[in-house]
Prior knowledge:
By secondary structure, the protein is an alpha/beta fold. It has six helices and eleven strands. The strands form two sheets. It has a six-stranded parallel sheet, sandwiched between helices. A five-stranded mixed sheet has the order 1-3-4-5-2, with helices on one face.
Amino acid sequence: MFYLPNLLPSAETVLLTEEESSHCIRVLRKQPGDEIQVLDGKGGLYTAVILDAHHKKCTAKVLNYCFEEPTVSVHLAVAPTKNMDRIEWLVEKGTELGCTQFTFILTKRSERIKVNMERLHKIAVSAMKQSKRVYLPDLEGPISLSEFLTKYPGGWVAHCDGDVPRGQVDASEPFRMLIGPEGDFTPDEVNATLKASYRPVTLGEARLRTETAALKSIIILEGLTVHG
């Protein structure tokens, strides 16, 4: 699988980027006449045959174009962890599982306020190709929790405050989940989410790491979009 975000359905030929060309020709050892598949990250899957096996500007002729209608909408909002490796792991695995949007939020107890979005984009692209998904998730942030709640009202919020009644996720609300920082949301933040039409839920009895709770949320929500 190769990725070209600006490819148009009407394209008759494709020109791979230098990075993708190198991977195609030098790593995979593709030759003229070999077929490849190219993704645009927006539902398009192109089957093409290589014309010029150049390691910097590989060109191919489009044989077939197929568009897959979006069927899943899973939006995860999560406070970045102090350890960036865990966020990178979350984006990789979340993309493979079908998350369509990641928003990184800043809370009062956030331990990280900066996120390397360019690196996360590359990880998401790689995960999309690896899992043969045709949609690249949107990556957004970091933005404040208040800005997020204004922009995206309604959904679910998972937190550890046992004094606030929490239910189970079902298919009656938008497929959007809020996951707090490693120190959890403050009581005021939980109240703010409730005012923004978020429903508090529990993800089980175990105390989960932020990235583990986030990944579990994706699995739950993705399952609801299929079976709900």
